[in-house]
Amino acid sequence: MVVSVRTVDAAGETISTKAAENLLAASCNMTCATRDVDAALATCAQRAGLHDVAQVPRPTSSGSSRLRNSGCSSSWLRLAVATCFWWLDHRAA
Prior knowledge:
- With 93 residues, the protein is an alpha+beta fold.
- 57% of the residues lie in helices and 13% in strands.
- A three-stranded antiparallel beta sheet has the order 2-1-3.
- A hairpin with a 5-residue loop joins β1 (4-8) and β2.
- The two termini are 55 Å apart.
């Protein structure tokens, strides 16, 4: 899940979408005849030093807590299975 995306210039400063479009329009020699416009724009943006920075949330649980949680789940499962066997054994008697 992406929280936010921003465009930065070669200096790492955040720039607006309009400023990025103006920079690309001024530095890219693109016409209607340009093949593979997406690749040409990506190459031009890379030369101009433009790139997007995406912010994603940090994971909330570490490996040890995941292991602890799975251990609790397996303990509950073992207890439920043992209760079922006990109940079936006493019911048959």
